[in-house]
Fold these 3 entries.
Entry 1:
Amino acid sequence: MLPHTQGGAQDLCFQQAPSFRQSYEAKSAHAHQTFFLEFKELKEVGKEQPRLGTEHPPNTTENQYPHVLPYDTSRDRLT
């Protein structure tokens, strides 16, 4: 259990820890199905962002993971 003092960051941590634990336990029920569904929803996030530089044929061999592609606005440009 985290230390509890009146006010300050320690009090804030104390109050948030049980909430996180309860959330984790609820999502862990039913063979982690809730975690799977939550992760599945993330597949749709960012699909409208351009990835033209990453998908350019000379750059495809530089992608570490073929299913994880950086957006044009956030990718490192190799020289």
Note: The helical segments are 8-28, 33-41, 52-55, 57-60.
Entry 2:
Amino acid sequence: MERSEMEEDIKKKKTKAVTSDVWRYFTKLGPGDDGIDRAQCDGCKQKFKAGGKQYGTSSLKRHLDRF
């Protein structure tokens, strides 16, 4: 195995740490049928898209502001 292949394998295994405070109030559900990660509000059980750059935590924060 070449060095570049090993580096790619290591990058695939690393996961980013959760840094937003909203994750105290939401549970990550994993990808939906469309492959986009989902999150569920621990209070009302509503589900949201929450993954990647397009679906960040802003919508989750707005949901919390309504309560």
Note: The radius of gyration is 15 Å.
Entry 3:
Amino acid sequence: MPRNLNAERDNPCLKEQELSFKCLNKNNFDHEKCEVYFANYNNCKEFWNKVKSERRAKGQAPYLPPLEEREAIKAEYMKGKPQQS
């Protein structure tokens, strides 16, 4: 459980962040061994920053969607994303 009770609400990439920290701890802070986790975290942050920017441009508040809307937003994005082979 996160220390900050609002952490999950305020950070849509909390899971990715925690996995990155866990990898660093497990691998004695060898960043090279955790590059995949860092890339995943950065992709997550980039995605949600884009969502916030689009919502802000539309005047849609809150800019960061509530927890209950996030899965649907991610699913909608994945529908339009080309499949990787």
Note: Helices lie at 7-10, 14-26, 35-58, 67-80.
